[in-house]
Amino acid sequence: MEDKNRMLRALPSVDQVLRNDCITHLEREYGHGIILDAIREELQSIRKRVLDGCADEVDFSDGKIIEAVRSRLDAMNAANLREVINGTGVVIHTNLGRAPLAGHISESALGLSARYINLEYDLGNGMRGSRHDIVRNLLCRVTGAEDGIVVNNNAAAVLLVLTSLAEGRDVIISRGQLVEIGGSFRVPEVMEQGGARLVEVGTTNKTYIRDYEKAIGEGTALLLKVHTSNYRIFGFTRDVTLEELVELGKKHGLPVVEDLGSGVLIDLSKYGLCYEPTVQQSVEAGADVVTFSGDKLLGGPQAGIIVGKREYIRKIAKHPLARAVRIDKLTLAALEGTLREYLDPDRAVQRIPVLRMLTADIGELERKADTLRQMLSGLQDYSSISVEKDYSQVGGGSLPLEEIETRVVSILPYHISVNKMEQNLRSGETPVVGRISRDRFIIDVRTVFDDQIHTLAMAIQHALTGGADNG
Ligand SMILES: *Cc1c(COP(=O)(O)O)cnc(C)c1O
Predict the structure, then answer these.
(1) 80-94 burial, b for 16+ CB within 10 Å, e for fewer?
(2) Which of 13, 223, 286, 340 lies at a C-alpha separation of 20 to 30 Å from 161?
(3) Which atom of ligand 1 is nearest to the CA of 293?
(4) Span 192-246, pLDDT tens digits
């Protein structure tokens, strides 16, 4: 106890630390309040260690306390949200922020966000405008729909559509479409939240149009079709087409709503990928309302896009919930930029990162992988490195069966375990995420931006050599 008291007495006061030259220096950079917090927290933590009997001798003169305060300040000021190198080959990686925006689009959106803008101001007549007008015409042009609005994300879009068109009434949906989509978006729960009553028809593997027809009654508000983005049922299956549903809807005067999930605007089979129905096709087939995400295959910011017949879009936009799920100005700016690229689909494929990555040709990937391998050629003593054939995934619950041939750089570390290597890469200055396969660390170059290759090579070098004893 005596020892502890002596050590506690040796602790400097907050003021003493504050008067230290190094700390005074930091004040300009960080501000007084946060420095005070850091000093108090550090002294508190030393005091606790002393009382727990696990502190070294306290000596204020050796600079350790100052150093510790400095580290605390650095930690407090380090951004939590950081750039990550995606070496997984999963193009729409939900945990890594889904679609990366095109550089020119994000720059222009950020620029606008730092100024006043005509977000809800009609420059034509000097009166109040609507933020929905910013992308309405573009949405109509690229999807072929009569009208459209955008909200915070597709989950919000579905919720808003069901609430505004079916609250307190029945929504008919095929049992095979009652799915959960990554990040706990469960169709039945969303419907419940929207105050709609769920009427399930058919069975898990087979649903016929007559199943829907039998379920239609007084309380029916709409017919819902959900794109089962992230799974497929094979074999003995039957699903009702959108065309059949539209015909049934017309016969009974009921709107047909389709949640497309990913919402692709370009037929990607032209570029060698699996065929996926486009938004334009749903609109053309007569769906009254179609919803989809902004940050999946569209390649834009997080958003929920709702397009369809004017009478329904008007009703949806007027519902009070629309205000709660409205899109913000930064997102709207980025979405406008992204949608504008689609005015020329070939240009969109070139300029929207998600589409460019998905359609990258194998020669380009081979060259990128080889560039990385060559940059790592000095690491022979630490690892065996090779370029191999593998498969990338689309991700984000889109095109679940698609396996796209790619090239990966495969690294077998000699002196550290592959798990240690993975951990080193993850905790580096620019974190790298890849995957482990057969004791090798695998980096799929499809999802690595060209201007990240150098940083990636440095990170790998650091992970292999910095982590080993024989440096
Ligand atoms: C991804 C998805 C959603 C949810 O969209 P978010 O933009 O993530 O909110 C809803 N429905 C389907 C079919 C989806 O694939």
Answers:
(1) eeeebbbbbbbbbbe
(2) 340
(3) 7
(4) 888 899 899 988 788 889 999 999 999 999 999 998 865 666 666 778 899 999 9
